[in-house]
Amino acid sequence: MSNEKINLGRELALQTLVERAPLASSLATAFKAKGFKLALVGGPVRDAILGRLGNDLDFTTDAHPLETKKILKGWAENIWDTGIAFGTVAGKRGDTTVEVTTYRSEKYEEDSRNPDVEYGDSIDGDLSRRDFTINAMALELTSEVPEFIDPFNGIDDLAKKIIRTPASAEQSFSDDPLRMMRAARFASQLDFSLDEEVVTAMKEMAGRISIISSERIRDEFVKLLLSPAPRTGITILVETGLAEMILPEIPQLQLEVDEHHHHKDVYEHSITVLEQAIAQEDRLGGANLILRLAALLHDIGKPKTRNLIPGGGVSFHHHEVVGARLAKKRLKELRFDNETIEAVETLVALHLRFHGYGEGEWTDSAVRRYVRDAGELLTHLHLLTRADCTTRNAKKAERLSRIYDSLEARIATLMEQEELSKIRPDLDGAEVMALLDIKPGAEVGKALDFLMELRMENGPLGKERAEQELMQWWINRDRSRRPPAQN
Description:
By secondary structure, this protein is an alpha+beta fold. The chain is built from 23 helices and eleven strands. It is elongated.
Protein backbone atom coordinates (compact mmCIF):
# COMPACT_ATOMS: atom_id res chain seq x y z
CA MET A 1 0.00 0.00 0.00
CA SER A 2 1.34 3.45 -0.89
CA ASN A 3 2.46 5.98 1.69
CA GLU A 4 -0.26 8.28 0.42
CA LYS A 5 -2.99 5.77 1.33
CA ILE A 6 -1.36 5.06 4.69
CA ASN A 7 -1.32 8.75 5.52
CA LEU A 8 -4.90 9.21 4.32
CA GLY A 9 -6.20 6.33 6.42
CA ARG A 10 -4.30 7.52 9.48
CA GLU A 11 -5.45 11.12 9.13
CA LEU A 12 -9.09 10.20 8.60
CA ALA A 13 -9.11 7.83 11.56
CA LEU A 14 -7.18 10.22 13.83
CA GLN A 15 -9.41 13.17 13.02
CA THR A 16 -12.54 11.20 13.93
CA LEU A 17 -10.92 9.80 17.08
CA VAL A 18 -9.93 13.25 18.29
CA GLU A 19 -13.41 14.59 17.62
CA ARG A 20 -15.53 11.68 18.84
CA ALA A 21 -13.36 9.42 21.01
CA PRO A 22 -10.90 11.57 22.98
CA LEU A 23 -10.59 8.88 25.65
CA ALA A 24 -8.76 6.57 23.21
CA SER A 25 -5.54 8.50 23.62
CA SER A 26 -5.68 8.34 27.43
CA LEU A 27 -6.21 4.57 27.28
CA ALA A 28 -3.21 4.27 24.95
CA THR A 29 -1.15 6.29 27.41
CA ALA A 30 -2.13 3.89 30.21
CA PHE A 31 -0.99 0.85 28.20
CA LYS A 32 2.20 2.54 27.03
CA ALA A 33 3.12 3.42 30.62
CA LYS A 34 3.14 -0.31 31.40
CA GLY A 35 5.25 -1.13 28.35
CA PHE A 36 2.47 -2.53 26.15
CA LYS A 37 1.15 -1.68 22.72
CA LEU A 38 -2.44 -0.71 22.01
CA ALA A 39 -4.20 -0.29 18.68
CA LEU A 40 -7.72 0.64 17.68
CA VAL A 41 -8.86 -2.21 15.47
CA GLY A 42 -11.63 -3.58 13.29
CA GLY A 43 -15.00 -1.93 12.91
CA PRO A 44 -14.12 1.28 14.79
CA VAL A 45 -11.23 1.94 12.38
CA ARG A 46 -13.52 1.34 9.44
CA ASP A 47 -16.18 3.61 10.93
CA ALA A 48 -13.63 6.28 11.85
CA ILE A 49 -12.51 6.44 8.23
CA LEU A 50 -16.15 6.62 7.12
CA GLY A 51 -16.83 9.36 9.67
CA ARG A 52 -19.44 7.34 11.58
CA LEU A 53 -17.60 6.30 14.74
CA GLY A 54 -19.77 5.42 17.75
CA ASN A 55 -19.02 5.14 21.47
CA ASP A 56 -18.06 1.44 21.40
CA LEU A 57 -14.35 1.01 20.67
CA ASP A 58 -12.39 -2.20 20.03
CA PHE A 59 -8.67 -2.41 20.73
CA THR A 60 -6.01 -5.07 20.42
CA THR A 61 -2.85 -5.33 22.52
CA ASP A 62 0.20 -7.45 23.17
CA ALA A 63 -0.68 -7.42 26.88
CA HIS A 64 -2.13 -10.66 28.18
CA PRO A 65 -5.70 -10.50 29.56
CA LEU A 66 -4.73 -10.31 33.25
CA GLU A 67 -2.39 -7.40 32.52
CA THR A 68 -5.15 -5.73 30.50
CA LYS A 69 -7.53 -6.16 33.44
CA LYS A 70 -5.08 -4.45 35.80
CA ILE A 71 -4.65 -1.49 33.43
CA LEU A 72 -8.39 -1.10 32.85
CA LYS A 73 -9.03 -1.13 36.61
CA GLY A 74 -6.98 2.03 36.86
CA TRP A 75 -8.55 3.66 33.80
CA ALA A 76 -12.21 2.66 33.60
CA GLU A 77 -15.06 3.45 35.94
CA ASN A 78 -16.43 -0.09 35.51
CA ILE A 79 -14.89 -3.22 34.04
CA TRP A 80 -16.12 -6.72 33.26
CA ASP A 81 -14.20 -9.80 32.22
CA THR A 82 -16.87 -12.19 30.98
CA GLY A 83 -14.86 -12.63 27.77
CA ILE A 84 -11.49 -13.11 29.41
CA ALA A 85 -11.35 -16.76 28.31
CA PHE A 86 -11.25 -15.42 24.75
CA GLY A 87 -8.68 -12.78 25.66
CA THR A 88 -11.12 -9.87 26.00
CA VAL A 89 -11.63 -7.48 28.92
CA ALA A 90 -14.13 -4.63 28.70
CA GLY A 91 -14.52 -1.35 30.51
CA LYS A 92 -16.55 1.82 30.50
CA ARG A 93 -15.52 5.41 31.19
CA GLY A 94 -18.04 8.17 30.68
CA ASP A 95 -20.07 7.38 27.56
CA THR A 96 -17.30 5.30 26.03
CA THR A 97 -17.24 1.49 26.20
CA VAL A 98 -14.03 -0.30 25.25
CA GLU A 99 -13.14 -3.92 24.59
CA VAL A 100 -9.46 -4.77 24.69
CA THR A 101 -8.40 -8.13 23.26
CA THR A 102 -4.98 -9.72 23.31
CA TYR A 103 -3.48 -10.44 19.88
CA ARG A 104 -5.06 -13.70 18.80
CA SER A 105 -4.27 -16.56 16.48
CA GLU A 106 -7.30 -18.83 16.42
CA LYS A 107 -7.66 -22.41 15.28
CA TYR A 108 -11.01 -23.90 14.32
CA GLU A 109 -11.94 -27.55 14.29
CA GLU A 110 -14.01 -28.59 11.27
CA ASP A 111 -17.29 -28.95 13.16
CA SER A 112 -16.62 -26.52 16.01
CA ARG A 113 -18.86 -23.54 16.71
CA ASN A 114 -16.13 -21.76 18.65
CA PRO A 115 -12.41 -21.31 18.04
CA ASP A 116 -9.57 -22.61 20.15
CA VAL A 117 -7.98 -19.36 21.23
CA GLU A 118 -4.23 -18.96 21.09
CA TYR A 119 -2.51 -15.66 21.77
CA GLY A 120 -0.46 -14.23 18.94
CA ASP A 121 2.72 -12.21 19.00
CA SER A 122 1.99 -9.62 16.31
CA ILE A 123 -0.79 -7.36 15.20
CA ASP A 124 -0.39 -8.52 11.59
CA GLY A 125 -1.20 -12.07 12.65
CA ASP A 126 -4.20 -10.79 14.59
CA LEU A 127 -5.49 -8.86 11.57
CA SER A 128 -5.08 -11.87 9.28
CA ARG A 129 -7.74 -13.81 11.23
CA ARG A 130 -10.41 -11.13 10.89
CA ASP A 131 -13.52 -11.56 8.80
CA PHE A 132 -13.21 -8.92 6.06
CA THR A 133 -10.51 -6.60 4.79
CA ILE A 134 -12.53 -3.54 5.81
CA ASN A 135 -12.37 -4.87 9.38
CA ALA A 136 -8.70 -5.86 9.18
CA MET A 137 -7.25 -2.36 9.62
CA ALA A 138 -5.71 -0.96 12.79
CA LEU A 139 -4.45 2.33 14.17
CA GLU A 140 -1.48 1.79 16.47
CA LEU A 141 -1.77 4.46 19.17
CA THR A 142 1.29 3.81 21.34
CA SER A 143 3.91 4.56 18.67
CA GLU A 144 5.69 7.91 18.59
CA VAL A 145 3.43 8.75 15.65
CA PRO A 146 0.13 6.85 15.34
CA GLU A 147 0.63 4.13 12.73
CA PHE A 148 -2.08 3.10 10.28
CA ILE A 149 -1.81 -0.65 9.59
CA ASP A 150 -3.64 -2.11 6.59
CA PRO A 151 -1.97 -5.31 5.33
CA PHE A 152 -4.94 -6.38 3.17
CA ASN A 153 -5.78 -3.06 1.51
CA GLY A 154 -9.01 -2.58 3.40
CA ILE A 155 -8.96 1.14 2.68
CA ASP A 156 -9.09 0.35 -1.05
CA ASP A 157 -12.11 -1.89 -0.48
CA LEU A 158 -13.76 0.88 1.54
CA ALA A 159 -13.30 3.21 -1.39
CA LYS A 160 -14.65 0.58 -3.82
CA LYS A 161 -17.51 -0.28 -1.41
CA ILE A 162 -16.76 -3.98 -1.62
CA ILE A 163 -16.68 -6.76 0.97
CA ARG A 164 -13.72 -9.12 0.61
CA THR A 165 -11.96 -11.55 2.96
CA PRO A 166 -8.27 -11.24 4.00
CA ALA A 167 -7.58 -14.91 3.28
CA SER A 168 -9.58 -17.04 0.86
CA ALA A 169 -13.33 -16.79 1.37
CA GLU A 170 -13.56 -20.59 1.69
CA GLN A 171 -11.06 -20.64 4.53
CA SER A 172 -12.63 -17.67 6.28
CA PHE A 173 -16.16 -19.13 6.15
CA SER A 174 -14.91 -22.56 7.09
CA ASP A 175 -13.29 -21.05 10.18
CA ASP A 176 -16.48 -19.26 11.19
CA PRO A 177 -19.60 -19.84 9.04
CA LEU A 178 -21.40 -16.96 10.74
CA ARG A 179 -19.16 -14.69 8.65
CA MET A 180 -21.42 -15.50 5.69
CA MET A 181 -24.31 -13.81 7.48
CA ARG A 182 -22.03 -10.98 8.53
CA ALA A 183 -21.20 -10.38 4.87
CA ALA A 184 -24.91 -9.94 4.12
CA ARG A 185 -25.32 -7.72 7.17
CA PHE A 186 -22.43 -5.41 6.26
CA ALA A 187 -23.79 -5.14 2.73
CA SER A 188 -27.05 -3.86 4.23
CA GLN A 189 -25.46 -1.60 6.82
CA LEU A 190 -22.86 -0.01 4.54
CA ASP A 191 -24.55 -0.30 1.14
CA PHE A 192 -21.58 -2.34 -0.12
CA SER A 193 -21.36 -5.15 -2.68
CA LEU A 194 -19.89 -8.61 -2.15
CA ASP A 195 -16.76 -9.75 -3.93
CA GLU A 196 -17.51 -12.55 -6.43
CA GLU A 197 -15.31 -14.98 -4.51
CA VAL A 198 -17.32 -14.23 -1.37
CA VAL A 199 -20.64 -14.89 -3.13
CA THR A 200 -19.38 -18.13 -4.67
CA ALA A 201 -18.13 -19.40 -1.32
CA MET A 202 -21.42 -18.51 0.37
CA LYS A 203 -23.40 -20.48 -2.22
CA GLU A 204 -21.11 -23.50 -1.92
CA MET A 205 -20.87 -23.43 1.87
CA ALA A 206 -24.36 -22.30 2.95
CA GLY A 207 -25.02 -25.62 4.64
CA ARG A 208 -22.13 -25.05 7.03
CA ILE A 209 -24.21 -22.42 8.85
CA SER A 210 -25.91 -25.38 10.56
CA ILE A 211 -23.07 -25.68 13.08
CA ILE A 212 -23.74 -22.15 14.37
CA SER A 213 -25.97 -21.72 17.42
CA SER A 214 -29.47 -20.32 17.00
CA GLU A 215 -28.61 -17.45 19.30
CA ARG A 216 -25.68 -16.26 17.17
CA ILE A 217 -27.75 -16.58 13.99
CA ARG A 218 -30.57 -14.61 15.60
CA ASP A 219 -28.29 -11.82 16.73
CA GLU A 220 -26.73 -11.47 13.29
CA PHE A 221 -30.13 -11.52 11.58
CA VAL A 222 -31.45 -8.83 13.94
CA LYS A 223 -28.50 -6.58 13.05
CA LEU A 224 -29.25 -7.12 9.37
CA LEU A 225 -32.97 -6.49 9.77
CA LEU A 226 -32.35 -3.27 11.74
CA SER A 227 -29.90 -1.96 9.14
CA PRO A 228 -30.79 0.97 6.88
CA ALA A 229 -31.35 -1.31 3.85
CA PRO A 230 -32.38 -4.82 4.92
CA ARG A 231 -33.56 -5.66 1.38
CA THR A 232 -29.90 -5.91 0.32
CA GLY A 233 -28.96 -8.43 2.99
CA ILE A 234 -32.16 -10.47 2.73
CA THR A 235 -31.66 -10.75 -1.03
CA ILE A 236 -28.12 -12.02 -0.47
CA LEU A 237 -29.34 -14.60 2.07
CA VAL A 238 -32.00 -15.83 -0.35
CA GLU A 239 -29.80 -15.93 -3.46
CA THR A 240 -26.92 -17.74 -1.73
CA GLY A 241 -29.16 -20.35 -0.09
CA LEU A 242 -28.46 -19.20 3.47
CA ALA A 243 -32.07 -18.14 4.00
CA GLU A 244 -33.20 -21.69 3.21
CA MET A 245 -31.10 -22.82 6.17
CA ILE A 246 -32.01 -20.16 8.74
CA LEU A 247 -35.38 -18.71 7.68
CA PRO A 248 -36.83 -21.01 4.98
CA GLU A 249 -40.24 -19.33 5.08
CA ILE A 250 -38.80 -16.33 3.22
CA PRO A 251 -37.50 -18.03 0.04
CA GLN A 252 -40.66 -20.15 0.04
CA LEU A 253 -42.60 -16.96 -0.65
CA GLN A 254 -41.22 -17.10 -4.20
CA LEU A 255 -44.29 -18.97 -5.41
CA GLU A 256 -44.46 -20.35 -8.93
CA VAL A 257 -47.02 -18.57 -11.07
CA ASP A 258 -48.53 -20.04 -14.22
CA GLU A 259 -50.09 -18.05 -17.02
CA HIS A 260 -53.66 -18.73 -15.87
CA HIS A 261 -53.35 -17.98 -12.15
CA HIS A 262 -51.97 -14.50 -11.65
CA HIS A 263 -51.16 -13.05 -8.26
CA LYS A 264 -48.59 -10.80 -6.68
CA ASP A 265 -45.03 -11.96 -6.22
CA VAL A 266 -45.42 -12.68 -2.50
CA TYR A 267 -41.68 -12.49 -1.83
CA GLU A 268 -41.28 -9.11 -3.52
CA HIS A 269 -44.49 -7.91 -1.88
CA SER A 270 -43.15 -8.85 1.58
CA ILE A 271 -39.87 -7.00 1.07
CA THR A 272 -41.77 -3.95 -0.17
CA VAL A 273 -44.06 -4.08 2.88
CA LEU A 274 -40.93 -4.19 5.06
CA GLU A 275 -39.55 -1.09 3.34
CA GLN A 276 -42.87 0.74 3.58
CA ALA A 277 -43.13 -0.11 7.27
CA ILE A 278 -39.60 1.22 7.83
CA ALA A 279 -40.60 4.47 6.14
CA GLN A 280 -43.24 5.02 8.85
CA GLU A 281 -41.17 4.04 11.89
CA ASP A 282 -40.89 7.58 13.20
CA ARG A 283 -44.30 7.00 14.78
CA LEU A 284 -42.63 4.38 16.96
CA GLY A 285 -39.56 6.46 17.73
CA GLY A 286 -37.18 4.88 15.23
CA ALA A 287 -36.05 1.43 14.05
CA ASN A 288 -38.43 -1.13 15.52
CA LEU A 289 -37.60 -4.83 15.50
CA ILE A 290 -41.14 -6.06 16.15
CA LEU A 291 -42.61 -4.05 13.28
CA ARG A 292 -39.87 -5.16 10.89
CA LEU A 293 -40.24 -8.82 11.81
CA ALA A 294 -44.01 -8.64 11.42
CA ALA A 295 -43.73 -6.89 8.06
CA LEU A 296 -41.27 -9.46 6.73
CA LEU A 297 -43.22 -12.46 8.03
CA HIS A 298 -46.83 -11.28 7.65
CA ASP A 299 -47.54 -13.43 4.56
CA ILE A 300 -45.50 -16.55 5.35
CA GLY A 301 -48.75 -18.51 5.69
CA LYS A 302 -49.51 -18.08 1.98
CA PRO A 303 -47.49 -21.00 0.58
CA LYS A 304 -49.34 -23.46 2.85
CA THR A 305 -52.79 -21.98 2.11
CA ARG A 306 -52.41 -21.39 -1.62
CA ASN A 307 -55.36 -22.62 -3.64
CA LEU A 308 -55.71 -22.30 -7.41
CA ILE A 309 -59.19 -21.21 -8.40
CA PRO A 310 -60.65 -22.89 -11.51
CA GLY A 311 -60.72 -20.43 -14.38
CA GLY A 312 -57.93 -18.32 -12.94
CA GLY A 313 -57.00 -16.66 -9.72
CA VAL A 314 -55.43 -17.75 -6.45
CA SER A 315 -56.76 -17.70 -2.89
CA PHE A 316 -54.95 -17.84 0.44
CA HIS A 317 -57.80 -18.35 2.91
CA HIS A 318 -56.80 -17.99 6.58
CA HIS A 319 -53.15 -17.41 5.71
CA GLU A 320 -52.95 -14.93 8.58
CA VAL A 321 -53.82 -17.69 11.08
CA VAL A 322 -51.36 -20.15 9.56
CA GLY A 323 -48.75 -17.41 9.24
CA ALA A 324 -49.05 -16.44 12.90
CA ARG A 325 -48.42 -20.04 13.90
CA LEU A 326 -45.42 -20.36 11.55
CA ALA A 327 -43.94 -17.06 12.75
CA LYS A 328 -44.20 -18.20 16.36
CA LYS A 329 -42.51 -21.51 15.56
CA ARG A 330 -39.67 -19.94 13.58
CA LEU A 331 -38.96 -17.19 16.12
CA LYS A 332 -38.92 -19.76 18.92
CA GLU A 333 -36.38 -21.83 17.00
CA LEU A 334 -34.23 -18.72 16.61
CA ARG A 335 -34.46 -18.17 20.37
CA PHE A 336 -36.23 -14.81 20.31
CA ASP A 337 -37.64 -13.69 23.66
CA ASN A 338 -41.27 -14.47 24.47
CA GLU A 339 -42.38 -10.83 24.35
CA THR A 340 -41.09 -10.40 20.80
CA ILE A 341 -42.55 -13.73 19.68
CA GLU A 342 -46.00 -12.95 21.08
CA ALA A 343 -46.01 -9.46 19.59
CA VAL A 344 -45.08 -10.64 16.09
CA GLU A 345 -47.56 -13.51 16.30
CA THR A 346 -50.32 -11.06 17.23
CA LEU A 347 -49.52 -8.64 14.42
CA VAL A 348 -49.38 -11.38 11.78
CA ALA A 349 -52.71 -12.77 13.00
CA LEU A 350 -54.35 -9.32 12.87
CA HIS A 351 -52.83 -7.91 9.69
CA LEU A 352 -55.94 -8.63 7.58
CA ARG A 353 -58.52 -7.44 10.11
CA PHE A 354 -58.76 -3.94 8.61
CA HIS A 355 -59.96 -5.29 5.27
CA GLY A 356 -63.34 -6.01 6.84
CA TYR A 357 -63.73 -2.30 7.52
CA GLY A 358 -64.89 -1.59 3.97
CA GLU A 359 -65.97 2.02 3.60
CA GLY A 360 -66.37 2.46 7.32
CA GLU A 361 -69.24 0.08 8.04
CA TRP A 362 -67.76 -1.18 11.30
CA THR A 363 -69.85 -0.54 14.39
CA ASP A 364 -68.27 1.15 17.39
CA SER A 365 -68.24 -2.31 18.94
CA ALA A 366 -66.06 -3.64 16.08
CA VAL A 367 -63.69 -0.70 16.48
CA ARG A 368 -63.42 -1.37 20.21
CA ARG A 369 -62.58 -5.02 19.55
CA TYR A 370 -59.93 -4.00 17.01
CA VAL A 371 -58.31 -1.79 19.64
CA ARG A 372 -58.63 -4.40 22.37
CA ASP A 373 -57.13 -7.20 20.27
CA ALA A 374 -54.20 -5.03 19.20
CA GLY A 375 -53.60 -3.81 22.75
CA GLU A 376 -50.23 -2.10 23.15
CA LEU A 377 -49.43 -3.00 19.54
CA LEU A 378 -52.10 -0.73 18.07
CA THR A 379 -49.64 1.71 16.48
CA HIS A 380 -47.59 -1.22 15.15
CA LEU A 381 -50.77 -2.61 13.59
CA HIS A 382 -51.61 0.78 12.05
CA LEU A 383 -48.19 0.92 10.39
CA LEU A 384 -48.20 -2.72 9.27
CA THR A 385 -51.66 -2.41 7.75
CA ARG A 386 -50.75 0.76 5.89
CA ALA A 387 -47.47 -0.79 4.68
CA ASP A 388 -49.35 -3.85 3.41
CA CYS A 389 -50.79 -1.79 0.54
CA THR A 390 -48.37 -2.29 -2.35
CA THR A 391 -50.77 -1.78 -5.24
CA ARG A 392 -49.48 0.19 -8.21
CA ASN A 393 -52.98 1.55 -8.76
CA ALA A 394 -52.68 5.08 -7.38
CA LYS A 395 -56.45 5.52 -6.99
CA LYS A 396 -56.80 2.25 -5.07
CA ALA A 397 -53.83 3.11 -2.84
CA GLU A 398 -55.26 6.56 -2.11
CA ARG A 399 -58.67 5.07 -1.33
CA LEU A 400 -57.21 2.51 1.12
CA SER A 401 -55.16 5.21 2.81
CA ARG A 402 -58.21 7.45 3.13
CA ILE A 403 -60.30 4.64 4.62
CA TYR A 404 -57.60 3.81 7.13
CA ASP A 405 -57.35 7.50 8.01
CA SER A 406 -61.04 7.35 8.88
CA LEU A 407 -60.51 4.28 11.07
CA GLU A 408 -57.70 5.97 12.98
CA ALA A 409 -59.89 9.04 13.40
CA ARG A 410 -62.72 6.92 14.81
CA ILE A 411 -60.31 5.21 17.18
CA ALA A 412 -59.00 8.59 18.32
CA THR A 413 -62.54 9.83 18.98
CA LEU A 414 -63.50 6.71 20.94
CA MET A 415 -60.18 6.86 22.79
CA GLU A 416 -61.05 10.35 23.95
CA GLN A 417 -64.61 9.46 24.87
CA GLU A 418 -64.06 6.05 26.45
CA GLU A 419 -60.35 5.60 27.25
CA LEU A 420 -60.18 2.66 24.84
CA SER A 421 -56.60 1.95 25.83
CA LYS A 422 -57.90 0.96 29.27
CA ILE A 423 -60.95 -1.10 28.31
CA ARG A 424 -62.20 -3.05 31.32
CA PRO A 425 -65.57 -4.10 32.79
CA ASP A 426 -67.56 -1.42 34.62
CA LEU A 427 -67.32 -3.48 37.84
CA ASP A 428 -64.27 -5.14 39.31
CA GLY A 429 -64.02 -8.60 40.84
CA ALA A 430 -64.65 -7.44 44.40
CA GLU A 431 -67.80 -5.57 43.35
CA VAL A 432 -69.05 -8.60 41.44
CA MET A 433 -68.56 -10.90 44.44
CA ALA A 434 -70.29 -8.47 46.78
CA LEU A 435 -73.25 -7.94 44.45
CA LEU A 436 -73.80 -11.64 43.69
CA ASP A 437 -72.75 -12.83 47.15
CA ILE A 438 -70.28 -15.36 45.77
CA LYS A 439 -66.73 -16.34 46.63
CA PRO A 440 -63.66 -16.20 44.36
CA GLY A 441 -63.82 -18.78 41.60
CA ALA A 442 -64.88 -19.52 38.03
CA GLU A 443 -68.24 -17.81 38.46
CA VAL A 444 -66.52 -14.47 39.06
CA GLY A 445 -64.55 -14.85 35.83
CA LYS A 446 -67.70 -15.63 33.85
CA ALA A 447 -69.43 -12.59 35.33
CA LEU A 448 -66.51 -10.35 34.39
CA ASP A 449 -66.49 -11.83 30.86
CA PHE A 450 -70.20 -10.95 30.57
CA LEU A 451 -69.54 -7.39 31.71
CA MET A 452 -66.63 -7.06 29.29
CA GLU A 453 -68.84 -8.14 26.39
CA LEU A 454 -71.38 -5.51 27.41
CA ARG A 455 -68.61 -2.94 27.57
CA MET A 456 -67.38 -3.86 24.11
CA GLU A 457 -70.86 -3.73 22.59
CA ASN A 458 -72.17 -0.60 24.29
CA GLY A 459 -69.25 1.41 25.58
CA PRO A 460 -69.12 2.55 29.24
CA LEU A 461 -72.31 1.58 31.08
CA GLY A 462 -71.79 3.23 34.42
CA LYS A 463 -71.89 1.36 37.72
CA GLU A 464 -75.66 1.45 38.23
CA ARG A 465 -76.58 0.02 34.84
CA ALA A 466 -73.75 -2.51 35.02
CA GLU A 467 -75.14 -3.77 38.32
CA GLN A 468 -78.64 -4.07 36.84
CA GLU A 469 -77.40 -5.95 33.78
CA LEU A 470 -75.27 -8.27 35.89
CA MET A 471 -78.13 -9.10 38.26
CA GLN A 472 -80.46 -9.86 35.35
CA TRP A 473 -77.78 -12.06 33.76
CA TRP A 474 -77.30 -13.88 37.06
CA ILE A 475 -81.02 -14.45 37.54
CA ASN A 476 -81.48 -15.74 33.98
CA ARG A 477 -78.41 -17.93 34.32
CA ASP A 478 -79.69 -19.36 37.58
CA ARG A 479 -83.04 -20.13 35.98
CA SER A 480 -81.45 -21.87 33.02
CA ARG A 481 -79.57 -24.20 35.35
CA ARG A 482 -82.63 -25.30 37.34
CA PRO A 483 -83.99 -28.79 36.53
CA PRO A 484 -87.37 -28.80 34.78
CA ALA A 485 -90.42 -29.00 37.04
CA GLN A 486 -91.92 -32.48 37.51
CA ASN A 487 -95.59 -32.98 36.68
